[in-house]
Design goal:
Shape: elongated
Number of strands: 11
CATH superfamily of one domain: Cupredoxins -  blue copper proteins
Strand content: 35-45%
Oligomer: single chain
Helix content: under 10%
Number of helices: 1
Distance between the termini: 64 Å
Order of helices and strands: HEEEEEEEEEEE
């Protein structure tokens, strides 16, 4: 009677060798995240958002003083950011895409020394910058020397 009991006990012990010994070990169950978030190694995080840097071309219709037909004129200026402003969540990565024809460096804008975030060649995307506190942030690009550029704006929300 003892032999079958010992064999059964040994089989149960062998079957449990791969079992986790405590509930803090990771399991193969994927993390379920709310809409707009992705699974990270620990918990969930917001999906990245992208700002497009485009050439600053403004088109206006003008009517000649001599009474001629209205004409379209284009004025080239500093870069435009889209969307601007952009609302992101705290710790949500922000990327920039350079749709202009020149390389640009995206910098912090405002008080203090400008901090470079990312340098992008034409057609390139990059960044992954995030803010750990709610509030406001402004940014600009390095290639605007005419002084008529408007900074991009970020609204960083708590959730």
């Amino acid at each position: 009677m003892r032999t079958p009991t010992l064999v059964a006990f040994a089989l149960v012990m062998l079957a449990c060798l791969g079992c986790p010994t405590d509930s803090t070990q990771p399991h193969d169950t994927p993390t379920a995240c709310p809409a707009g978030q992705r699974a990270l190694s620990v918990g969930c995080g917001w999906l990245p958002d992208t700002i497009t840097i485009g050439p600053g071309v403004q088109t206006n219709t003008v009517t000649p003083l001599n009474g001629g037909a209205p004409q379209q004129i284009s004025i080239t200026g500093c870069f435009l950011f889209s969307p601007n402003p952009l609302s992101v969540h705290r710790n949500q990565p922000v990327y920039w895409t350079n749709n202009s024809t020149v390389s640009v460096t995206v910098f912090s804008y405002g008080s203090g020394t400008p901090t470079p975030y990312v340098t992008l060649a034409p057609g390139q995307s990059g960044g992954g910058v995030f803010w750990s506190s709610a509030g406001f942030a402004a940014y600009s690009v390095s290639s605007c020397t005419s002084g008529d550029g408007k900074p991009g704006q970020l609204v960083i929300t708590e959730t």
